[in-house]
C-alpha cells in the first residue's frame, strides 16, 4: 500500500513528510474532519503494515509522533464527550450485564438489515469497499492488547484471537477470508486498496479502534470495543449472507459472513465474560473504560451507517 | 502449589445463551449427523431456534426471555 491521497493541508504535509518528498517545517492545522481523519489513519497505519513509499522509521519519529499525539488527544476528547452526553445512568454494576444493556439499548441504523432486503449490487459493493478498510486488518487492533492484560483476560483474548486468525490455518484467517470474498465479487483484495474511498465516518471508526488498541492506558476501552463488536455481529452477519445470496453474490464473500455467524456467537460470550468480566474483576479501575469503549464501538458504527444510508438516499431507521 | 489457579471448564452454560464447549473434535446433532469441530471453543444452541443447529447463531437474543 502507498501513502493515502491527501485530503487537506495536514494530510498533504504528512504524505510529503513520510515519503521524504516535501519540505520540513511544522505541521499545519487540519482543514477539515476528513483531513484530520485520514492523517490519523495514516499515522496509525505506520504501526500495522506501513507503506511501501514511506520510511518505516517514521513510526517512532518524534516530530511525526507529536502530530499523532495531537490528533489522538482530539479524537479521545471527542469520543469521551459523546459518551458523557449519552451514558445511561442506570447500567448494571456487573460489567457483562452492563455490556448487554448497552447493546440492547443500541438503536443505531443497521446496514445489514438494508442489505438483506433492499440494497442493490452497487450499494453492496460500495459497502464492501468501505468495510475492507477494517476487515483486511480484522482483529489486529485487539492483538496489540494481549501483553497488557492480566492472566485470565489474556488467556481468553488469545482463545478468541486464535479463532480470528484461523485456528492456525492461514486459509481460515478472517482477514484472508474477506480478501478472498473481495476478489470473488470483482473488487481489489490488496490490503488498504480502498482507503482513498473511505468516508470520514469510516476513518473515525477505524481510528477509534486503533487508538484503543495502541495505548496500554486504553486497554479497557479496547476490550469493551471488542466485546460490543462481537455482540453485534452474529445476527447482522446472517443478514449479510441473505442479502448477498439475494443478489447472487454468494460464494466466498457470503462464506466470510457465514463464518462470522457461528464464530461471533462464541466470541461474544468470551469477550463479555472471560475477557471484559475478568478484566474488571482484576483491575476494577478498567470497568468504566470497558463501557466507554463498548458504547463508542456502537456509536461510531451508527454514525457510519447513518452516513452511508444517507448517501444512498435512504432514511436511517 | 495448587495444580490449577483458575476455573476453566470444558462446558459452560451461558445465561439465556448457548452452551460453550471446549476441546471437542466432533459434535453429533439431534438428527445423528456428526459435525467436525475446527475451533478451540464452539457454542451449541440451547434455544433450538438457531438456523444452523447444532451451533448457536445468536437467535436466542431476539427471543423474549421467560
Automatic annotation (TrEMBL), chain A:
SUPFAM superfamilies in UniProt: Heme oxygenase-like
Source taxonomy: Bacteria, Bacillati, Actinomycetota, Actinomycetes, Propionibacteriales
Organism of origin: Nocardioides cavernae
UniProt-recorded name of the protein: Iron-containing redox enzyme family protein
Gene3D superfamilies linked to this entry: Heme oxygenase-like
InterPro entries: Haem_Oase-like_multi-hlx (IPR016084)
Automatic annotation (TrEMBL), chain B:
The name this protein goes by in its record: CDGSH-type Zn-finger protein
GO molecular function, one term: 2 iron, 2 sulfur cluster binding
Classification via Pfam families: zf-CDGSH
Superkingdom to which the source organism belongs: Bacteria
Keywords: 2Fe-2S, Iron, Iron-sulfur, Metal-binding
Cellular component terms (Gene Ontology): cytoplasm
Residue ranges constituting the Iron-binding zinc finger CDGSH type domain according to the UniProt record: 32-66
Record flagged with keyword Metal-binding: yes
Amino acid at each position: 500500500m502507498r501513502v493515502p491521497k491527501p485530503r487537506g493541508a495536514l494530510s498533504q504535509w504528512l504524505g510529503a513528510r513520510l515519503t521524504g518528498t516535501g519540505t520540513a517545517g511544522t505541521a499545519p492545522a487540519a482543514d477539515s474532519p476528513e483531513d484530520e481523519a485520514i492523517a490519523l489513519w495514516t499515522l496509525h497505519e505506520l504501526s500495522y503494515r506501513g507503506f511501501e513509499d514511506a520510511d518505516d522509521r517514521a513510526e517512532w519519529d518524534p516530530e511525526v509522533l507529536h502530530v499523532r499525539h495531537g490528533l489522538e488527544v482530539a479524537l479521545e476528547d471527542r469520543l469521551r464527550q459523546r459518551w458523557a452526553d449519552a451514558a445511561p445512568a442506570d447500567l448494571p454494576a456487573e460489567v457483562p450485564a452492563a455490556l448487554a444493556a448497552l447493546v440492547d439499548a443500541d438503536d443505531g441504523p443497521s446496514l445489514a438489515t438494508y442489505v438483506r432486503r433492499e440494497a442493490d449490487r452497487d450499494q453492496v459493493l460500495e459497502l464492501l469497499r468501505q468495510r475492507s478498510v477494517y476487515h483486511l486488518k480484522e482483529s489486529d487492533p485487539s492483538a496489540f492488547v494481549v501483553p497488557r492484560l492480566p492472566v485470565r483476560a489474556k488467556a481468553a483474548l488469545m482463545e478468541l484471537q486464535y479463532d480470528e486468525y484461523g485456528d492456525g490455518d492461514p486459509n481460515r484467517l478472517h482477514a484472508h477470508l474477506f480478501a478472498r470474498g473481495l476478489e470473488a465479487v470483482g473488487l481489489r483484495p490488496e490490503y488498504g486498496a480502498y482507503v482513498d474511498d473511505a468516508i470520514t465516518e469510516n476513518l473515525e471508526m477505524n481510528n477509534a479502534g486503533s487508538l484503543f488498541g495502541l495505548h496500554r492506558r486504553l486497554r479497557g476501552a479496547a476490550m469493551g470495543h471488542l466485546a460490543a463488536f462481537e455482540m453485534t455481529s452474529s445476527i447482522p452477519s446472517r443478514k449479510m449472507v441473505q442479502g448477498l445470496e439475494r443478489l447472487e453474490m454468494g460464494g466466498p464473500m457470503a462464506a466470510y459472513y457465514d463464518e462470522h455467524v457461528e464464530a461471533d456467537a462464541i466470541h461474544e460470550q468470551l469477550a463479555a465474560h472471560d475477557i471484559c468480566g475478568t478484566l474488571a474483576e482484576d483491575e476494577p479501575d478498567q470497568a468504566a473504560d470497558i463501557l466507554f469503549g463498548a458504547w463508542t464501538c456502537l456509536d461510531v458504527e451508527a454514525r457510519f451507517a447513518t452516513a452511508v444510508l444517507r448517501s444512498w438516499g435512504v432514511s436511517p431507521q | 502449589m495448587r495444580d490449577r489457579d483458575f476455573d476453566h471448564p470444558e462446558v459452560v452454560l451461558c445465561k439465556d445463551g448457548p452452551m460453550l464447549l471446549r476441546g471437542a473434535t466432533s459434535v453429533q446433532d439431534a438428527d445423528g449427523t456428526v459435525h467436525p469441530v475446527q475451533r478451540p471453543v464452539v457454542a451449541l444452541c440451547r434455544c433450538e431456534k438457531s438456523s444452523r443447529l447444532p451451533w448457536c447463531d445468536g437467535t436466542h437474543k431476539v427471543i423474549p426471555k421467560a
